Amino acid sequence: MKKTMLACALMAATFSVAAKDKLIPLADADAALLKDKTVALTVHPRPSFSAMTAGKASFGLLGAAAMISAGNKLVDENHVQDPAEILRANLSAALHDIHGVTVLAPDTAPTKASKPKELAALHPEADYVLDVRSGGWMYAYYPTKWGTYWVGYSVQVQLVDTKTGRQVSNAACNAHTRDNANPPSLDQLHADQAKLLKAVTTSLGWTCVQTLAKDQFHFAPEQVAAIPAEYVNPLAGIQTPVATDTASAAMPTDAAAAAAPAADTAVKSEGASAPATADGAATGNDGTR
């Protein structure tokens, strides 16, 4: 049991950590200064994907390493896209359309820089840097719905003034399918080159586009691209496997809770590698969040 709880805690760390900074929405005064400015787009290495199953959770540290290894293999072999690309493209497009900025081509080389001054130093030729960094993504089993899984994704977005290194705006989004009415099985997530997993992680990326557009940048819904219909709730049409509660013998409910974020979709600022789950306002859409 101790090994299981340790593995759960490690998986939780890949998805959420304590927030270090306050949420910084884009202020009206700063928004007014964006017109005719240039914005550079950073790219980061893809974070490890944690594939949390009951069997691996029971092996503690070794199990946690196995989860990450299995998750990365799944993502690599099936070419699962980092949702950060969806946020980078859509938030930068909205900044261009609404505030008149010129958006530079995304970086070709990924960076590990995360602090505002470090990010500013990467692009002295630009006025601002829009930094989109995935903090963590994973799937995990339900301890009381044996054989079914939820998927989670977290991301941090910063807008940095390159001349001063000031964090003009900063926020994070956590999105997951933990409360979806149609939790899939592992086989369903993996089938057909992880087609369903790709759809769900893409959906979570779009969820964060909408959440951050509203809460971080104060864009109106009509000013941002709508979620494509196929990603509004990709779990809606699946045949959910019959779930039992036998998983409770493999992992106690309180341990599983430690591995899952508390909010459906939360916005909060971060200075760490994986955005935190907030206790504040959460949003949902058709049960997919």
From TrEMBL:
<feature type="signal peptide">
    <location>
        <begin position="1"/>
        <end position="19"/>
    </location>
</feature>
<protein>
    <submittedName>
        <fullName>Uncharacterized protein</fullName>
    </submittedName>
</protein>
<feature type="region of interest" description="Disordered">
    <location>
        <begin position="259"/>
        <end position="289"/>
    </location>
</feature>
<keyword id="KW-0732">Signal</keyword>
